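Regression test case RT-17, inverse folding.

Input:
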């Protein structure tokens, strides 16, 4: 049997980002419901069709029960208004395949940040479904969720519950001057004069800007952005919702 060529670990982020984005849209368009009513286990497994494939390093890690348990820590979630071309079932069907970033280019330590100082010998590389990265994000997430993100960042790749909680924390939390992804998607965020000057518009493109704007926005026809849009469109069809306008951020300046 031929070996399976895996998608990049950044696809973990793309797939999960799209899913929580669509959950926000679903809750925005209809009366609020508990998350299990919006995404049952069958839909969850269809979204992440190959997450438990033996070829995936994270097989059997991202369980539906852990996802649902994590959502209960964020009561407003779900209740407020580059693909792999030859992959089986298409390039957008291999979400949640990785627990952590593969071959990181650095240890993601910003030693200029004195509020959340790096712990010697630790790597703050991407981990979990949204690929939590950098010491300041691990520090803040750990403080909010009850673990030591600076001294024990590895727990994000060792506990599926904590992994999902970090992704939801990032989604729900404002980090000025950036709004929270959640507020953008449920229509709570009002564009500032700085946003207007930077040509930032509310939509999926703005969420990409919040997450990774410095690397992916302001670039015409960026393959990574196009991949995220591809994931988004597939998941929108599974959820039965419209994608809305402003899907890319090619004309936006980063925050």
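Golden output:
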């Amino acid at each position: 049997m031929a070996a399976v060529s895996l998608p990049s670990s950044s696809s973990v982020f793309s797939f999960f980002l799209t899913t929580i984005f669509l959950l926000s849209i679903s809750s925005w368009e209809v009366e609020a419901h508990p998350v299990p009513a919006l995404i049952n286990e069958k839909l969850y497994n269809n979204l992440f069709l190959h997450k438990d494939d033996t070829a995936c390093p994270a097989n059997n890690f991202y369980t539906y029960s852990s996802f649902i348990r994590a959502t209960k820590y964020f009561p407003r979630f779900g209740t407020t208004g580059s693909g792999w071309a030859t992959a089986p079932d298409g390039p957008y069907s291999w979400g949640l395949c990785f627990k952590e970033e593969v071959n990181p280019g650095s240890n993601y330590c910003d030693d200029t940040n004195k509020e959340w100082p790096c712990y010697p010998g630790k790597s703050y590389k991407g981990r979990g479904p949204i690929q939590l990265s950098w010491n300041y994000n691990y520090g803040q997430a750990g403080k909010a969720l009850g673990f030591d993100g600076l001294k024990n960042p590895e727990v994000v790749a060792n506990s599926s519950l904590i992994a999902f909680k970090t992704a939801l924390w990032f989604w729900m939390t404002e980090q000025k001057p950036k709004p929270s992804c959640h507020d953008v998607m449920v229509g709570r965020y009002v564009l500032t004069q700085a946003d207007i000057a930077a040509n930032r518009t509310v939509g999926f493109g703005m969420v990409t800007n919040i997450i990774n704007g410095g690397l992916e926005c302001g670039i015409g026809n960026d393959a990574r952005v196009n991949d995220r849009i591809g994931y988004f469109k597939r998941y929108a069809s599974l959820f039965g919702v419209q994608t809305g306008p402003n899907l890319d951020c090619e004309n936006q300046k980063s925050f």
